[in-house]
Amino acid sequence: MKRSWHGIALAGLASAALAMGVPVAGAQAETLAGALARAYQHNPELNAQRAALRATDEGVPQALAGYRPSVNADGTVTASEIESRLDGVPNNNFGTITSTFGVTVAQPLFRGFRTQNAVAQAEAGVAASRAGLANTEQDIFVSATQAYMDVLADRAILQLRQQNVAFLNEQVRAAQARFDVGEGTRTDIAQANARRAFALAQVSAAQASLTASNAVYRQIIGTDPGQLVTPSPFTNGIPSTLQGSLDNALATHPAIVAARSQIDVAQSAVAIAEGALLPSVDLEGRAQRSWTDGGTQDGGPNDTLSATLRLSVPIYQGGRTTSQIRESIEVLGQRRLELDVAREQVRAAIYSAFGGLEASRAQIEASTAQVAAAQVALSGTIEEQRVGQRTTLDVLNTQEELIDARISEVNARRDLAVASYSLASALGRLSAESLGLQVARYDPVEHYDAVRDRWYGLRTPDGRGGVLFGD
């Protein structure tokens, strides 16, 4: 009996270690770095943010179009019939067809500095979107780490729960055996059965939690979890003291960079709105050819060339323009306040993550010591029960304390890994480069350079077409 109980108790620790990442021989294990690389390539939220950045890039050539001419062609065909009368009697009747075709070229010369401010606004929008993408990458890496560690922890907890059921099955069998030989009571059997029933419910709950964790893993990383390996906490660039890196994080964190760029966007919007109060100058040239057939008109073509220099001075627009200026000024004030909000959010996240990291380290030390002590206590209680100094309830309670201690250790190790990656994210240092991911890096500049100075073209740089003019 003693050997069986000891074997079951020690098997729980071994299986927990297996569930927390010791690879099975011959199995291809998925490391955290590999999972993060998958998320970096395939996560739909991250890819959607990249697509949003590419769309934002197009704002720059759209703004630059304000410097460029526009060319339009137009044509008309007019049919008419003319009837003349003399003393009320029809005298002459003839029809004409007039055809006109023309090309107009319009070149803006001055638009109240709105074009250059629109370009500056678009450039700032691109910078904000790039910083937003970097921040989204960090969030995805943290979420992927949480999903990875949740699967590891839930697997370990499920195996611990299952080992607990096996232990309690042995307790029920032993209590029944003692009762059969007159050394136990029905109370011992009832206590063991009650504890086993509760343990079976805990196994079901642990299985449900693991199923949910598997689903989240697939959602974020893109594949079902296979054999996983327990990672080490993230240490690349993590400071030993908090204050040393706080100021740098408040200056370079992607969320703060994005907020500053949004201020630049809003400042350009104010200048654009104010530009509507300034004069504008446009040069327009037109070439036209017309034909008239029928009647008394000559059917030969008539060519017309014209050039127009147009000056427009706004005087009053019903108060709309000035209202738009005031609105843009208020938005600028909002963006400046949002920068303060972003700084405080980053500061709070840093303190929270740093505190969570320290707490997890302390919790691991405490839970490790608790597991060792609970293991000794269980072994001693089992020995004492064999000689009649302890009851079945004492053994059951000591086993429950051991299981709780092991689960606390599993959760503490999960929390340590997540806290380390969360701190790196809060400091703005979690990227594919800092993680050393073996994956092709997404370069946002490549698409920007491909579209910035394009004067024409319907297809995206990767070859996709539209709805009407696509493949």
Task: Describe the protein's architecture and organization.
- This protein has 471 residues and is of the alpha+beta class.
- It has 2 domains: 2-68 and 116-278 and 323-451, Outer membrane efflux proteins (OEP) (Up-down Bundle), CATH 1.20.1600.10; 70-110 and 283-313.
- Helices cover 63% and strands 14% of the residues.
- The protein is built from 12 helices and 6 strands.
- It has helices at 2-19, 32-42, 44-57, 59-64, 114-180, 186-221, 243-252, 254-275, 320-386, 392-426, 432-435, 444-451, and strands at 29-30, 70-86, 89-110, 227-228, 280-293, 302-312.
- Strands 2-3-5-6 form a 4-stranded antiparallel β-sheet, with no helix packed on it. Strands 1-4 form a two-stranded parallel sheet.
- A hairpin with an 8-residue loop joins strand 5 and strand 6 (302-312).
- Helix 8 runs antiparallel to helix 9.
- The longest helix has 67 residues, at 114-180.
- The chain is elongated and about 140 Å long.
- The two termini are 75 Å apart.
Defining traits:
471 residues; alpha+beta; 2 domains; 4-stranded antiparallel beta sheet; elongated; disordered N terminus
Helix content: 55-70%
The appropriate CATH architecture of the largest domain is: Up-down Bundle
Beta-strand percent range = 5-15%
For the terminal residues, how far apart are their CA atoms? 75 Å
Q: What is the number of independent domains?
A: 2
Topology, pairings included?
Blueprint: H1 2-19, E1 29-30, H2 32-42, H3 44-57, H4 59-64, E2 70-86, E3 89-110, H5 114-180, H6 186-221, E4 227-228, H7 243-252, H8 254-275, E5 280-293, E6 302-312, H9 320-386, H10 392-426, H11 432-435, H12 444-451
Parallel strand pairs: 1-4
Antiparallel strand pairs: 2-3, 3-5, 5-6
